[in-house]
Amino acid sequence: MVQKDRKQKRIRRKLHIRKNVRGSALKPRIFVFKSNRYFYAGLADDDSSKVIKSFMSKKNSNDIITMAGAFAKEAVKFETLVFDRSGYRYHGLVKTFADELRNKGVKI
Q1: Which of 20, 27, 68, 73 gets the most CB atoms within 10 Å of its CB?
Q2: What is the DSSP pairing of strand 82-84 with strand 38-45?
Q3: What is the pLDDT of residues 68-94, one digit of tens each?
């Protein structure tokens, strides 16, 4: 029996989530990605397979809050959005980012 590493497990969870989560031109998808140093987030239109806007920041809470403010200015243009956690657990930076978007008036 072969052990799956953390990255393979996250990719499997991500694909399972993406079966149900879709963004459109009227209701884009917010996606997140975490590397060892940076936190990335973006708006995607899955119907036309395009990224509308993307943002990057250092991986700490203060920078995430600042990035969420800039991100919210772009996201307010849309009525509602769909949040895609990309296979990550909903805690820590992912939760901080989503909560900060909600505080800025973005409907997720």
Answers
A1: 68
A2: unpaired
A3: 999 999 999 998 999 999 999 999 999
Q: Which of 10, 2, 51, 1 is nearest to 31 (CA)?
A: 51
How far CA 1 is from CA of 5, 6, 86, in Å, comes to 13, 16, 26
**For the domain that residue 33 is a member of, what is the CATH number?**
3.30.420.100
Indicate whether 87 belongs to any domain: yes
Band of pLDDT at residue 1, cut at 50, 70 and 90: low
- 17-45 pLDDT per residue, tens: 888 888 888 899 999 999 999 999 999 99
- State the alpha helices, DSSP H only, in 1-108: 6-18, 61-75, 93-103
Q: How many angstroms separate the CA atoms of 8 and 89, rounded? A: 15
